[in-house]
Amino acid sequence: MKARVKWVEGMMMVGESPSGHGVVMDGPPNLGGQDLGVRPMEMLLLGMGGCTQIDVMMILNKSRQQVSSCEVILDAERADEIPQVFTRIHAHFIVKGRDLSEKHVKRAIELSAEKYCSASIMLGKMAKITHDYEIIEED
C-alpha cells in the first residue's frame, strides 16, 4: 500500500490515499498553519474510528441486525512529552435500530477490537484502548 502526502504551503498538506481520494491536513496557526484541515494526529484517531466502525457494521449486518445508525465517539489522551503519542483512547459506540440484540452489538465491538481492526490493534500497542456502547431502540 502506498500513500502520498504533498506539501501545499505553510503547514498545509494534501494526502492522497491508495484508492485515489484526497484529504486536506493542516497545522494550528501557532505552528504556521491556517487551520484549514484536520491535524495529522486527528486523522490517525479518525482512521481508527472508521476502521472499527466498518468492522462493527459488517458484523452486525451479517448477524441480520436492523441497524439504522451507528456512531463511534472517540476520546483520546496524548503524552505530555515528545513524542506526544496517544496514551489512552476510549471508543463509545451508539447503535440505533430495531430489535437490536445487546449480545450481538457487544460481540461485534469485541471482535473488532480483538481480531479485525488493524488500526485499533496497532494503536493498542502504545495506548490503552477501551470500548463501551449504548443501544437506542427505534420504533
TrEMBL record:
Transmembrane segments: none annotated. Gene3D superfamilies: 2.20.25.10, 3.30.300.20. Pfam families: OsmC. InterPro entries: KH_dom-like_a/b (IPR015946), OsmC/Ohr_fam (IPR003718), OsmC/Ohrsf (IPR036102). PANTHER family: PROTEIN YHFA. This is Redox protein. It comes from Solemya velum gill symbiont.
